[in-house]
Amino acid sequence: MKLLSKINRTYFKYGLLVFLVADVVIILLSNLILKDEIDQQLELEAEQIAETIKKEGAFHNVYPTDLAIEILELNIKNEATKDTLIFEAKNDELVPYRELVVYKSIRGKYYQIVTRQMLMEFNDLFALFTALITTMLGLVFVLMLLFTQKMNSLLWGTFNKNVELLKEYSFRLDKKLLLNQTGIQEFDDLNHVISKMSDRLEKDYQASKEFSANAAHELQTPLSIIRNKCEDLFSYTDLNEKVIESIREIYVSTDRLSGITKALLLLAKIDHGQFNENEEICLNQFIKLKIDSLKEILEDKNLKINLHDTNNCTISMDKRLANLWIQNIIINAIKYSPDGKEIDILIRKNDLSISNFGEVAIINPEQVFNRFYKESEQIGSSGIGLAIVKKIADHYHIKFDYLFNDYKHIFKFKLPNR
Questions:
Q1: What structural domains does the chain harbor?
Q2: Beta strands in 64-184 (DSSP E)
Q3: Using one digit for the tens of pLDDT, what is the confidence trace for 123-179?
Q4: DSSP letter, residue 62
Q5: CA atoms within 13 A on the CB side of 245
Q6: Can you give the pTM of this predicted structure?
């Protein structure tokens, strides 16, 4: 959720709460103020009735609003003001009134003077004030919303442009990150911090890139020398079996170390984004060609690959990485498949799965794509092949999973929708 949307929703949520509270408070206060004004008017009317009796000796009652009733002295009580309901036969309903009852001694007689004024029903009062408050608060809210949007477009416009620059920025591009000044101290401070951080990260990126390339290059030279020396030693005729075996182990380990070095360099290059020559690749044709190139290995292990392609499966990616991806998952299936068994490859529009027979499931399936993780000490296994598969899949947003079902290791890949 965007910040502005969250702010507006918060305004609306708490504004509604404030509206409800304000509605109740205003209605109660208005009711009190209204009754106080009515009480003052009732007192004034009672005084006028008393003056009329003094002058004229009598008062013509007006029911139900103005009444003067002669009473005995013993019936005199304290002055009282209250709300009351009076039945109106005309409308056949009870009508609310505010009532004042006072007692006066006039010309030696005692009178009970009652003045009343009709009140607005609470429902009508509530509806009236609610409508007024809703209109006012709604108008204020709309005006604030429009004002906020206008201010946001002015205040956040440059910030949003900087966000777009950050999205497009890449260490691989020979271009320095230049953010626009916003004129707002907090945003400009943030720009300054981001620019300094990007400079440090770019230096670290270049150093890491150079180190990976230099390390791989420098390691290959001594490894090549070791292999050449081992090959020279094999030509000697006066070596015993123990020495020959030791030389062979050195040669195999050196060759394996060379492969690991190349694989690690490849992972570093993928991380550094050095494979971006994307093209449309049909995995069906790609896999068929790869199977043909591995015929000798399949014959040596008496393996058969069953290819089921119900639909053409295409993806846009670097051809070199596509080759490594397909090669590694097929070789992994061949390497760990028992001799004489079958390997199944299923290709659909956006799915690819490959399965091979196995005696038991992998003990730690969540680690199967980790670097150097191995459950087998099989010679020639570097434990990095599936790590390369994972890196390529992550690079192209390909979802992958491993499961063991019906004595089969199954690797599934879900290509992004196009």
A1: 3-150 (no CATH), 170-274 (1.20.58), 278-414 (3.30.565.10)
A2: 66-71, 80-88, 93-106, 109-118
A3: 777 777 778 877 887 788 788 778 877 777 777 777 778 888 887 776 666 677 778
A4: B
A5: 3
A6: 0.49
